[in-house]
Amino acid sequence: MKSKLDPALLALMAVVLVALPFVASGYVIYVVNLLMVFVVLALGLHLVIGETGQFALSHAAFYGVGIYTAGLINNLWHPPFFVSIVAGGLLAAVLGYIIGALALRMRDIYLALSTFAFGEAMQWVFLNWQSVTNGSNGFRISPATLFGYELVSDIKAYPFVVAIAALLLWATIALSRSQLGSAFRAVRESDVAAQAMGVNVNAIKRTAFTLSAAYAGIAGGMYTTFASFIHPESLGFQTTILILTMVVVGGIGSVRGAIAGALGFGLISELLRQALSFQEIIYGVILMGFMMFAPKGLFASRDARRRAPPPATPLPTRTGAAAPAAKPTQRSAA
What we know:
Blueprint: H1 7-23, H2 26-51, H3 59-77, H4 81-102, H5 108-128, H6 130-133, E1 139-140, E2 144-146, E3 149-151, H7 154-176, H8 179-189, H9 191-196, H10 201-223, E4 229-230, H11 237-250, H12 255-271, H13 276-293, H14 298-307
Antiparallel strand pairs: 1-4, 2-3
Protein name: High-affinity branched-chain amino acid transport system permease protein LivH
Organism: Achromobacter deleyi
InterPro entries: ABC_transp_permease, LivM-like
């Protein structure tokens, strides 16, 4: 399925995002920055689950790799922020390639469990590598810089965060419409059929894992441009479930669904900030409900209805035409 976005809706979103800094408070700008990070995370998970059909549960780990990599580079060398963001994305991509190579022989629940184990292992690293991550005390991030200009507030980071999110949205749509996107979807439908058509299934799966991890790493780098602190507890399984819920509820295989899910559940997570003990229950109930009653999500279901062929019309018959004579049955000899 080629991804399509309504140009009028995109234009409206662009106008709102441009006008927002002039009318909104600092907290609203912070929330929008966070929503843009969620959009990139959801687009990355969309590539591996929605486009390629590989059920991976390690997205929060790659997100954490991007945050800590970009944060460490900012703290030590203060380069232009895009350098640290690219570094975080590259390191996450390398890890994603390795995980993708190890998971080639796994499918479905086995793939989910192996990637879940990797995510838990990475959270353990974030919690216990004291000399690098500062462990359970949390990690302080220096302000991002751009040739001496410090992004010391949410509103200063806002245009760069929105621009990166828009760039990755464009890249996702272009990828979906490319030959590589067609190969992704062929693997999603059937490994055997894709291989019979000449698709290198193993290479496609590794590419999907690598790109998905790179998106998560870049999202982590984006987070360091407006946030000054990160704690390993916020990079655990709850974050993975949140991102998964965004993609599933929005619509698996739909770019529009990934964006809508990221915006909707990003706002819900912010509203539930004071009720942390109920977040996992609420996300779980919503996710279970959609998987039971609308497994393709909101926007994927709409797209399927739009693509459904019209009902076949019966061929016209001539008026007064004689019905075909019944074939005589042959009696058996007595």
